[in-house]
Amino acid sequence: MTFTPVRPEPITADPPGYPARALLTQSWLDLAFVHWAVDPADVAPLLPAGTVPDTLDGATYVGLVAFRMHRVGWFRLPGVPYLGSFPETNVRLYSVDEQGRRGVVFRSLDASRLIPVTVGRAAFGLPYLWSRMSVRREGDVLVYDSRRRWPGPRGARSRIALRVGEPVEEPSELEHFLTARWGLHSAFFGRSLYLPNSHPRWPLHHAELLDHEDDLIEAAGLPRPCGAPVSVLYSPGVPVEFGRPGRGPAGIPTP
């Protein structure tokens, strides 16, 4: 079903508010943001019910985002030091729902710890996949490697190598659009889910893509990107809180 959303909420560099009751806490560290423009018509069938592609000047985007997850925890308790820390690479799209809330939709989330993968799939219905992964840094160069183990397609891989550049002093509208996202849209047992998140303003850096090999975007049901990415950014990271899903058309009570 298609719909015309209410006026989308503004694109803001700062969160609209911190969750009153945090459901999950974590930190995202050493992030590589690599994005390509795509036709909204190509991604619309891949989004959850109740959402449409979020666009900027008529285009939407597919993002390949690699980073280190650090100390996932529940209800503001201390994060888990081993099982809660692992490399992750996700393929994500950009969405807006009937209430005008902008978010991301994850087509895949490759992670290197099997227990968080199974919890993410079972508890939130997110497309987590178990992969062999590493993040290596040498000076201002970072290399992110991923090769999928389960459930498949087995062997799907991604390699990103980038050189970190100067800080982004004044992020552009596109850079805010791609990074300042305050929730995710998903589905949970056939019902729409909006999970809000909050974190400090992104510290962003320009970055140079030195090497890129990727099967994950195609494995997520998207066309292979053509040409160079339109945006390559790096961030040292932020602490993050996820709130409870709200009640209403795009939210469900947390069990």
Gist?
This protein has 255 residues and is mainly beta. The protein is 10% helix and 49% strand.
Describe the structure.
With 255 residues, this protein is mainly beta. It has 4 helices and 12 strands. Strands 1-3-4-5-6-7-8-11-12 form a 9-stranded mixed barrel. The chain starts with 21 loop residues before the first strand and ends in a 12-residue tail after the last strand. 38% of the residues are buried. The model is unreliable at 247-255 (pLDDT under 50).
Task: Give the helix/strand layout.
Blueprint: E1 22-38, H1 40-43, E2 51-53, E3 60-74, E4 86-97, E5 102-111, H2 114-124, E6 128-138, E7 141-150, E8 157-167, H3 173-179, E9 183-188, E10 191-198, E11 205-214, H4 216-219, E12 231-243
Parallel strand pairs: 5-6
Antiparallel strand pairs: 1-3, 1-12, 2-4, 3-4, 4-5, 6-7, 7-8, 8-11, 9-10, 10-12, 11-12
Number of strands: 12
The biggest beta sheet, please? 9 strands, mixed, barrel
Ends: how far apart? Answer: 27 Å
Low-confidence stretches: 247-255
Query: If you compute it from the alpha carbons, what radius of gyration comes out, rounded to the nearest whole angstrom?
Result: 17 Å
Q: What's the helix-strand series?
A: EHEEEEHEEEHEEEHE
Number of helices: 4
Look at the helices and sheets and give the structural class: mainly beta
**Mean pLDDT across all residues, rounded?**
90
